[in-house]
C-alpha cells in the first residue's frame, strides 16, 4: 500500500466525523420538526375547538359546548365560552316562549273580535240592544289588544332599564265577570 499523504489521512478521519455530525444534525432537525408539529397541534387544538363552537353559534346552535381540558388559559376561555353558550341558549328558549305566549295573547282577542263581527254580518237582523252589546264587546277587545301591545312595549322598556315596575291591586272577580261577559257570545254560538 502506498503511503497516505497528510491530506488523505485527514480526509479519512474528517469525512466520517463530518458524516456523523451531518447525521446528528439531521436527527436534531427531524426531532425538532416533530416536536414543533406536536406542539403546534397542542396549541391549535383548543383554538380549533373554540372556532368550531363559534361556527355553531353563528348559525343559531347555542347547544354546542367546548370540552375543557386542564387549567390553562385555553381551559378558562373554554369555560367562559360554555357559560356564554348556556346563557344564550337559555335566552333563546325564553325568547321563543315569549313569542309563543305573546302570539297567543294577541290571537285570543282577535278571534273574539272576528266572531263578534261575523255574527253581526251574517246574523239576520239583530235586536239593536244585542248589536250595541256586540259592538261594546268589540270595543273592549280592541282596548284589550291595545293593553297587550302596551304591556309588550312596557316589557321592552323594563328590559332596557328605562322603566321600573309598580304594583297595583285589582279585583279578580271583576276580571272574571268581564271575561265571562265577553266570551258569552262565543259560548252561545258553539252551544
List the helices and strands and how they pair.
Elements: H1 6-58, H2 73-122, H3 128-159, H4 172-190
Helix pairs in contact: 1-2, 2-3
Q: Element order, helices and strands?
A: HHHH
Which structural class matches the secondary elements? mainly alpha
Unreliable segments of 5+ consecutive residues: none
Number of strands: 0
**How confident overall, as mean pLDDT?**
86
The span between the termini is 128 Å
Helix count from the secondary structure assignment: 4
- Share of helix, binned: over 70%
The outline comes out as rod-shaped
CA radius of gyration: 39 Å
Describe what this molecule looks like in 3D.
The structure is a single chain. The chain has 191 residues and is mainly alpha-helical. The chain has 4 helices and no strands. It has helices at 6-58, 73-122, 128-159, 172-190. Helix 1 packs parallel to helix 2 and helix 2 (73-122) runs antiparallel to helix 3 (128-159). The chain is rod-shaped and about 140 Å long.
Question: Notable features of this structure?
Answer:
191 residues, single chain, mainly alpha, rod-shaped
Could you give a short description of this structure?
81% of the residues lie in helices and 0% in strands. The chain contains four helices and no strands.
Amino acid at each position: 500500500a502506498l503511503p497516505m499523504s497528510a491530506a488523505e489521512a485527514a480526509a479519512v478521519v474528517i469525512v466520517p466525523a463530518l458524516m456523523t455530525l451531518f447525521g446528528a444534525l439531521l436527527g436534531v432537525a427531524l426531532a425538532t420538526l416533530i416536536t414543533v408539529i406536536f406542539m403546534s397541534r397542542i396549541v391549535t387544538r383548543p383554538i380549533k375547538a373554540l372556532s368550531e363552537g363559534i361556527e355553531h353559534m353563528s348559525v343559531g346552535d347555542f347547544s354546542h359546548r367546548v370540552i375543557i381540558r386542564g387549567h390553562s388559559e385555553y381551559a378558562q376561555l373554554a369555560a367562559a365560552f360554555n357559560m356564554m353558550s348556556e346563557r344564550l341558549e337559555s335566552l333563546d328558549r325564553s325568547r321563543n316562549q315569549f313569542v309563543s305566549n305573546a302570539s297567543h295573547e294577541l290571537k285570543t282577542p282577535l278571534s273574539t273580535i272576528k266572531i263578534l263581527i261575523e255574527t253581526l254580518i251574517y246574523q239576520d237582523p239583530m235586536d239593536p240592544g244585542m248589536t250595541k252589546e256586540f259592538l261594546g264587546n268589540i270595543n273592549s277587545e280592541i282596548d284589550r289588544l291595545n293593553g297587550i301591545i302596551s304591556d309588550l312595549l312596557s316589557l321592552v322598556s323594563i328590559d332596557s332599564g328605562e322603566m321600573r315596575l309598580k304594583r297595583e291591586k285589582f279585583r279578580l272577580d271583576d276580571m272574571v265577570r268581564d271575561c265571562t261577559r265577553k266570551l258569552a257570545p262565543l259560548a252561545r254560538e258553539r252551544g
